[in-house]
């Protein structure tokens, strides 16, 4: 059955009254690229003033918790680092605390500074990433130039605006040459919303490495439990009074479903109206739908 589309002030109020903890996706819910979604500041201020817990949960692997917090605060959203979680952080937690990644091994990073920062926080050695040697690639490919680092024990792929053939070839060869080298993807989002449309996301960038290596990657970000484990290590909340708000059915809404948390889908991000209300709707169904998270701002208007 198609989920209810919330439209009235009364419907918004009833939902808000039933929630103590809001888990908020970022790209597509809080901001679109550099722009904050209209009404979101008012909504967050109102929720916090009412004593509600707000937790930001992004799959964006370019942002460390610190960077995510800075991004939110540049938009005047008053975030604290304790409220901020990302797939880069959850990946570092997984490597350090679940895998006990050896201190003398390195991660080959297909990603940016935010991921490197989180690895540094956990004392995990890394190479690749922002190293100019890997970023400044121009054809032709000089195959003999690549001297593999024998200490690489994992390849971690995140969103990487500098993705190039050299990085892909290096990542693939670490995986090809040593079955003990593990492949981790921070997240697999095919697209993300920005500048009024959608563009290739992290999953679309790392799929070539997955294909070439023929490895089954371990995926950390939403909808996987590793992301929720990272949040739950910092925050206790009653799942029956929590709400996962997101724009992506396969990451955010599945994440809520996997965690037994109600879900609210916002439009205007990566999901199209027909995926919910069309003739062949998605099998992933949110509990509720709203045009925008900013719509709750009408509740701040006492008139
Ligand atoms: O490509 C990516 O990494 C993701 O699409 C993107 O950044 C998702 O962020 P989220 O919507 O989870 O905040
Ligand atoms: Mg999103």
Automatic annotation (TrEMBL):
Mg(2+) binds at residues 25, 27, 247. Its cofactor is Mg(2+). It comes from Kwoniella heveanensis BCC8398. One of its GO terms (cellular component) is cytoplasm. Substrate binds at residue 222. It catalyses: 4-nitrophenyl phosphate + H2O = 4-nitrophenol + phosphate + H(+). The keyword Hydrolase applies. One of its GO terms (molecular function) is phosphoglycolate phosphatase activity. NCBIfam families: HAD-SF-IIA (TIGR01460), PGP_euk (TIGR01452). Its EC number is 3.1.3.41. Keywords: Hydrolase, Magnesium, Metal-binding. The active site is at residues 25, 27. Divalent metal ions. Mg(2+) is the most effective. InterPro entries: HAD-like_sf (IPR036412), HAD-SF_hydro_IIA (IPR006357), HAD_sf (IPR023214), PGP_euk (IPR006349). Pfam families: Hydrolase_6, Hydrolase_like. This is 4-nitrophenylphosphatase. It comes from the Eukaryota.
């Amino acid at each position: 059955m198609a989920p209810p589309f919330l439209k009235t002030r009364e419907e918004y109020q009833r939902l808000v009254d039933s929630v103590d903890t809001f888990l908020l996706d970022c790209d597509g819910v809080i901001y679109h690229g550099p722009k904050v979604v209209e009404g979101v500041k008012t909504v967050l201020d109102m929720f916090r003033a009412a004593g509600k817990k707000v937790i930001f949960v992004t799959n964006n692997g370019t942002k460390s918790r610190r960077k995510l917090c800075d991004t939110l605060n540049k938009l005047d959203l008053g975030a604290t680092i304790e409220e901020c979680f990302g797939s880069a952080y959850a990946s570092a937690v997984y490597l350090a605390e679940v895998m006990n990644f050896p201190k003398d091994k390195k991660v080959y990073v297909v990603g940016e500074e935010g991921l490197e920062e989180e690895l540094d926080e956990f004392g995990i050695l890394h190479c690749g990433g922002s190293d100019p040697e890997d970023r400044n690639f121009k054809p032709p490919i000089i195959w003999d130039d690549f001297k593999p680092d024998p200490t690489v024990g994992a390849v971690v792929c995140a969103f990487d605006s500098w993705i190039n053939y050299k990085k892909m070839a290096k990542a693939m060869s670490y995986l090809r040459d040593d079955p003990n080298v593990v492949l981790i993807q921070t997240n697999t989002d095919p697209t993300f919303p920005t500048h009024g449309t959608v563009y290739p996301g992290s999953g679309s960038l790392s799929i070539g490495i997955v294909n070439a290596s023929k490895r089954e990657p371990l995926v950390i970000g939403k909808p996987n439990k590793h992301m929720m484990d990272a949040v739950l290590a910092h925050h206790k909340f009653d799942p029956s009074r929590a709400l996962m708000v997101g724009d992506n059915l396969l990451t955010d809404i599945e994440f809520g479903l996997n965690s037994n948390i109600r879900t609210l889908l916002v439009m205007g991000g990566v999901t199209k109206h027909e995926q919910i209300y069309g003739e062949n709707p998605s099998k992933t169904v949110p509990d509720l739908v709203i045009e925008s998270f900013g719509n709750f701002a009408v509740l701040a208007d006492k008139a």
